[in-house]
Amino acid sequence: xxxxxxxxxxxxxxxxxxxxxxxxxxxxxxxxxxxxxxxxxxxxxxxxxxxxxxxxxxxxxxxxxxxxxxxxxxxxxxxxxxxxxxxxxxxxxxxxxxxxxxxxxxxxxxxxxxxxxxxxxxxxxxxxxxxxxxxxxxxxxxxxxxxxxxxxxxxxxxxxxxxxxxxxxxxxxxxxxxxxxxxxxxxxxxxxxxxxxxxxxxxxxxxxxxxxxxxxxxxxxxxxxxxxxxxxxxxxxxxxxxxxxxxxxxxxxxxxxxxxxxxxxxxxxxxxxxxxxxxxxxxxxxxxxxx
Length: 291
Ligand SMILES: [Zn+2]
Known about the structure:
- The protein is an alpha+beta fold.
- It folds into two domains: 181 residues, Homing endonucleases (Endonuclease I-creI, Roll); 75 residues, no CATH class.
- Helices cover 63% and strands 13% of the residues.
- The protein is built from twelve helices and eight strands.
- The strands form two sheets. It has a four-stranded antiparallel beta sheet with strand order 1-2-4-3.
- It is rod-shaped and about 110 Å long.
- The model has no long low-confidence stretch (mean pLDDT 90).
- It binds zinc ion.
- The site of zinc ion has 8 residues, from α2 and α6.
- Zinc ion binds next to α2 and α6.
């Protein structure tokens, strides 16, 4: 079965290709994160056919170069050796840091670059298991600039240095949702929101039922104190010798051990308030103590 991350990428890859200004940003996002130089060629390997087809379409649109797609076991790759493609990539390579100024022409282009970066080097965990989104990047310059770009979009990612590069990651579900929304992955964003709502509802139910149990415990504790007192009264003086108002409540308490004071009050004729019932039971407790 396909992972959540794969499904999200496939969905992104099938989005309509954006405005002209965004095409280069998205293409370069994929190439910077997934392209590997091999002599005078760049090899790009992606796990989904949709994603590699999208790269081919972007290269065609930006540079008018046809790209051959090949498949190898479970992944798909293409080899870019056309001078125009190499020239474009070297142009950005030379910029090292500062590439985003050239790449991000309008606000929309940041989102396109983010989408390309995710298709090329991003991954995320199924929100039902955990909240995690991360990008792996090998060049320190791309890492620094990408981190700044994310910050400018309001997406605060943390980063750790690994043996052969950097991982930018977040475990914050709000940031993940925002990042997905920027990329245009609205169905994935909705899935996370649904998981969050479900989790909140579940914890509300647990909290409520814990609260109900605690209340029930209190009711039973008070009730058993009353019953002990009523039993003592019955043994020593007899319940029927209590004043009428107390006699009525004492019988009711013995017959309905698990009712709250409020519920007991409703059973009286005429009904009595919770504090009225409480008052009578306190008098019963007092009588029992002084026997
Ligand atoms: Zn744009």
